[in-house]
Structure formats: structure tokens, C-alpha cells
Amino acid sequence: MPPLDFDWHVHTERSYCSEPPLSIDDLRREAERKGLIGFAITDHTAHLHFPEDRAWRYEFIEDYAVFEEVREQGNPRIEEYLERLRSLRGNGILAGIEVEAAVSGELIVDDDLAREFDVVIGAVHWLPGYKDAPQEEFEELFLRNTLALLDHDIDILAHPTRIFRRAERPIPTHLYEPIVRRAAERGISIELNSHSQKDPDADFARLCIEHGIKIAMSSDTHNIRELGDFSHQRSILRKIGIADSDLDKHVFTLDDLLSNPRHRRPSK
Ligand SMILES: [Zn+2]
Ligand SMILES: [Zn+2]
After folding, report:
1. Is residue 265 part of a domain?
2. CA geometry: angle at 253 spanning 252 and 255, to 5°?
3. How far apart are CA 221 and CA 112, in angstroms?
4. Do 12 and 24 touch, CB atoms closer than 8 A?
5. Minimum mean pLDDT among 167-181, 214-228, 248-262: which range?
6. Domains in the chain: how many in total?
7. Any residues with CB less than 8 A from the CB of 49 and at least 6 apart, and which?
8. Rg (CA), the chain
9. Which value, to the nearest 10 degrees, does the dihedral of the CA atoms of residues 214, 216, 217, 222 take?
10. Buried b (16+ CB within 10 A) or exposed e, 39-49
């Protein structure tokens, strides 16, 4: 059986966008039912720091000082989340976070705290001018923000071009190359994400394979039914000519996680 048995991107009820029931216990039962060997819980750091209305306003992306103001008071919630996840490590659950970068380049999480997690997923969800900036200007900002994420010690780049789908903008296919090249240089995996607007497309995935990037299987579960369902990922991989028997050469695994440079550093 090909190694599509680990889900790298899963939310719980701690993310405001999740659909109940989505407790860790619900997820564990579902993972067992579907024969997964494990999954990474990757709730949004902004949701662990901000109340719901402020999380969705994304002021912390435009102005990093907005995050700095709540960092200390938000950390106890993240620390408690980390402790809970750590206690489940023996059950195939990894402690993760999904994190954005401010336009000034800093991650929306305390750097020392981020190092304590098993998995750090970087993502672009919103940028200034989301709907109304001229496309070219928006593309520039997007590329800068994505490259900033890749300069940090993240393990996986999430849904690399989904922001364009959500904002109903054209997908900037000419930016695939610089993003993939930087991820390859940094040893960072890129995911195939099957939640809502599935992203990225087959051309992006093909380029990842050409650059030797291992692809993470990510349901981005917000609804219990999504967990471990990789039928979309499988069809993209087939489309670009990856036979089921070759999946193990291209799919991101737990061993690959540990080869990311950030896991080779002393944690403290
Ligand atoms: Zn996301
Ligand atoms: Zn997510």
C-alpha cells in the first residue's frame, strides 16, 4: 500500500473555521477508522492569540506590532495547546501550528515557541489589497510574503496559491518557479491541499517533483469527513505521471520531517 497514511494538516475546534464536532478525540477515532498511522494537528496561531473578530481582521499581517501587543498574553494558550498535543505524541499525533508572516516578514508566533513544535506549516491567507489591489502589485506582495515564509524554519508550505482562488484572481503561474526553487533550496515540503478550493494545481505539483521536493498529503481538515481523504492528491499525482508504486519517492514522510534543517538544530 502506498504511504498515503499520514495527514499533515488538520484543524481542531481551537480554530475558528472548524466545523464541529472536531475535538482531538473525534479526530483520533476517525484516523483509526480510516487506517491512518497518524496526523499533525496544525491549528492557526492567530486563532490561539486573538479573539475571533480580530483574527479575521488580519491587522497583524499589515502591522506586526499588533501581534507583539498580544504575544505574551496569547502564549499561555499556545503553551497549553502544545502541552496537550505533546501528551498525545505516542499515539501518532504530532504537535503543529499553521502560521502566517506579517508583510514585514516576521512569523505570527513567538520564534522560541515555534521551535518547540514538531511541525510548522507556513501559509498565506490574506494580504493588504486582497480584493482591490492591482493584480501585479498584489502578486509582488504575495511573492515577497511567500518567500519570507520560506526564509523561516518552516517544514511545509501550505496551499501555495490558494489566496488567488479565494480572492477570485487569476493564478500567477509565472511565480511557481521562484517559489518552488526557494522551497527546494531550503529543504521545505509543499503540500497538496484538498480543502475547499483545492490547491495547488498539477503544474505546480509537477514543478515540485522536478525540483526534488517531497509533497505533503494535507487534507486541511476543518470537517471530520476530510481527515485522511487523499483522493484529490492521488488524482493530481496520477495526472502528472506518478505511478502508485513510485509514491514513496515523492511523498513527504516522518523521516523527511526530521531531515528539515530546523530539526537538526538544538532546540534550546
Ligand atoms: Zn491555511
Ligand atoms: Zn489550515
Report:
1. no
2. 125
3. 27
4. yes
5. 248-262
6. 1
7. 55, 60, 67, 70, 71, 74, 77, 78, 108
8. 17
9. -170
10. bbbbbbbbbbb
Domain assignment present for residue 107? The answer is yes
Quote the ligand 1 centre to 197 CA distance (angstroms): 11
Q: Looking at the predicted structure, is the pLDDT value of residue 27 above 70?
A: yes
Cβ neighbors of 108 (< 8 A, separation 6 or more) are 45, 46, 49, 60, 61, 67, 99, 100, 101, 102
Burial of 105 (0-12, 13-18, 19+ CB in 10 A): middle
104-131, pLDDT tens digit by residue?
999 999 999 999 999 999 999 999 999 9
Do the domain assignments include residue 171? yes
Residue 267 has pLDDT above 70, yes or no: no
**92 Ramachandran zone, left/alpha/beta (phi>0; psi -120 to 50):** left
C-alpha cell belonging to residue 189: 515540503
130 CA distance to ligand 2 middle (Å): 18
Tell me, in angstroms, the distance from the centre of ligand 2 to residue 112's CA: 22
Domain assignment present for residue 267? The answer is no
Q: In 10 A of CB 212, how many CB atoms?
A: 10
CA 216 to ligand 1 centroid distance, Å? 14
Assign residue 224 the CATH number of its domain.
3.20.20.140
Statement: residue 90 has pLDDT above 90: no
User: 43 alpha carbon to ligand 2 midpoint, in Å?
Assistant: 7
Residue span of the structural domain in which 186 resides: 6-260
Q: Which residues surround ligand 1, an ion (CB under 5 A)?
A: 123, 158
Question: How is residue 189 annotated by DSSP?
Answer: E
Q: Where are the alpha helices (DSSP H) in the chain?
A: 24-33, 45-49, 52-57, 59-62, 64-86, 111-114, 135-151, 162-166, 176-186, 202-210, 231-239, 247-250, 254-259
